Amino acid sequence: xxxxxxxxxxxxxxxxxxxxxxxxxxxxxxxxxxxxxxxxxxxxxxxxxxxxxxxxxxxxxxxxxxxxxxxxxxxxxxxxxxxxxxxxxxxxxxxxxxxxxxxxxxxxxxxxxxxxxx
Length: 118
Fold this sequence. Notes:
Number of helices: 2
Strand order of the largest sheet: 2-1-4-3
Largest sheet: 4 strands, mixed
């Protein structure tokens, strides 16, 4: 095995779930700028995370949408805009087809009138 492959600067760190406030103390090498007081009265580095086993639907058994940065709303807005654009294009194509049909009919009538008058 390679020497010095794994870090050796493990220390106790508190991880906090931003969804429900769940906190747990474990050992880690992660860098943290904040500190917090733990239940034993000691200060430990604090790392804030968006999701943990306490809030993830796989572990909790409940299904819910975690929209942290408005991604779901952005997706729905893009989908609605796309559908509106598709509807506008379909309406424009239908209008264009009607115009073309009217022009063809007018040309046919004109051709018939020209044929009758000769």
